[in-house]
C-alpha cells in the first residue's frame, strides 16, 4: 500500500528510519512508529516497494532509505487518482512505466452472452482444484516463456503474491484448465476473495490461440461465480493489450479506474 495522508507537519522533530528486516523499514519519531516501507519480489524477479506514511517528510525519508539500500530497478504501484502518492514517488525519482486498467466483470450469462459458449472441439475445461499439479505448472512455465518472448511478463497484472521461491504459482487450486488430449493448453486463475472475486490471469498457449479457448475459460469461471451468488468479479488489463481489452469489453465488463506502475532505474 502507498499512502500519503497529509502534506504538513506541526513540528520538525527528527525522524529515524531503520531497516528492521531484509524487506521492511520503520520510521520512528520519538520512538513512535510513524511510517513503514516494504519490498516484495515478484516471480519475474522485479522488486516492488510500497510505503505507508502519514506525512510527506516521512514518506520521503522512507523512500530515500529504501532506494539507498536496494538495487535498481525498483517498482511501485499507485492508483491513478491518488495524485499525492504519485507525486511522492516522483520526488523519489520514479517515473510511469505503464498503465493498467481495472474492469468490473459481470458474471450473469444473460449479460456476458457467455451462456451458450462451449470449448472448441476436442477441448475440455477442468474446474478449479481438479487439474494435475505438474502438468499445470508445466503450462504455467510455457506461458511465461511465451510472454517473455513477446510483450514481456511486465505486461501482466502488477501484483505481488506470496509463494515459495521455487514456484511461479501461489495456489494451483485456484486454476481452471483447458485440456486437449493429454496436454493442458489454457488456464484461468480466479481468487475467491471475500469482498469480490478477482480474475488474476487468463492464458492460452500460443499454438492454441484464436480458437475460443479464452472465452470458454471465462464462460466456465464466470458461470461458476454466478451460480454461487457472486454478481461480479474484478480484473486488470494492461492498456497496451488490445486483445484482452476487447475480450473483457465484449462480455460487458466496465472500466472502473486505472493503476500506474512506476519505476526507478
Automatic annotation (TrEMBL):
Q: For the N-acetyltransferase domain, which residue ranges apply?
A: 123-265
User: Does Lipid biosynthesis show up as a keyword for this record?
Assistant: no
Report which residue ranges the record marks as coiled coil. Answer: none
Q: Which InterPro entries match?
A: Acyl_CoA_acyltransferase, GNAT_dom, YpeA/RimI_acetyltransf
TM annotation in the entry? none
Give the Enzyme Commission number: 2.3.1.-
Keyword annotations for this protein?
Acyltransferase, Transferase
Q: What class of enzyme is it?
A: transferase
Alphabetized Pfam families for the sequence:
Acetyltransf_1 (PF00583)
- What molecular functions are annotated in GO for this chain? acyltransferase activity
User: Which PANTHER family would you find in this protein's record?
Assistant: ACETYLTRANSFERASE
State what protein this is by name.
GNAT family N-acetyltransferase
Q: Which organism is it from?
A: Kitasatospora misakiensis
Amino acid at each position: 500500500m502507498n499512502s500519503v495522508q497529509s502534506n504538513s507537519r506541526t513540528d520538525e522533530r527528527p525522524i529515524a528510519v531503520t531497516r528492521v528486516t531484509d524487506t521492511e523499514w520503520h520510521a520512528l519519531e520519538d520512538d513512535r512508529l510513524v511510517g513503514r516501507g516494504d519490498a516484495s519480489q515478484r516471480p519475474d524477479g522485479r522488486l516492488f516497494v510500497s510505503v505507508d506514511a502519514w506525512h510527506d517528510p516521512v514518506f520521503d525519508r522512507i523512500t530515500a532509505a529504501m532506494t539507498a539500500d536496494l538495487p535498481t530497478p525498483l517498482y511501485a504501484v499507485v492508483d491513478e487518482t491518488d495524485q499525492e502518492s504519485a507525486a511522492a514517488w516522483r520526488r523519489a525519482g520514479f517515473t510511469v512505466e505503464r498503465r493498467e486498467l481495472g474492469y468490473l466483470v459481470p458474471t450473469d450469462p444473460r449479460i456476458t452472452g457467455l451462456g451458450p459458449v462451449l470449448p472448441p472441439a476436442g477441448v475440455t475445461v477442468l474446474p478449479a482444484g481438479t487439474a494435475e499439479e505438474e502438468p499445470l505448472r508445466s503450462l504455467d512455465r510455457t506461458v511465461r516463456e511465451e510472454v517473455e518472448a513477446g510483450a514481456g511478463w511486465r505486461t501482466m497484472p502488477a501484483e505481488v503474491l506470496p509463494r515459495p521461491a521455487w514456484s511461479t504459482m501461489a495456489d494451483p487450486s485456484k486454476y481452471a484448465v483447458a485440456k486437449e488430449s493429454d496436454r493442458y493448453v489454457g488456464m484461468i486463475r480466479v481468487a475467491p476473495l471475500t469482498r469480490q472475486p478477482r480474475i488474476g490471469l487468463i492464458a492460452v498457449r500460443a499454438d492454441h490461440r484464436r480458437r475460443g479457448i479464452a472465452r470458454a475459460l471465462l464462460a466456465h469461471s464466470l458461470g461458476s461465480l454466478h451460480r454461487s451468488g457472486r454478481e461480479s468479479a474484478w480484473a486488470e488489463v494492461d492498456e497496451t493489450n488490445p486483445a484482452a481489452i476487447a475480450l473483457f469489453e465484449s462480455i460487458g465488463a466496465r472500466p472502473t479506474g486505472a493503476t500506474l506502475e512506476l519505476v526507478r532505474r
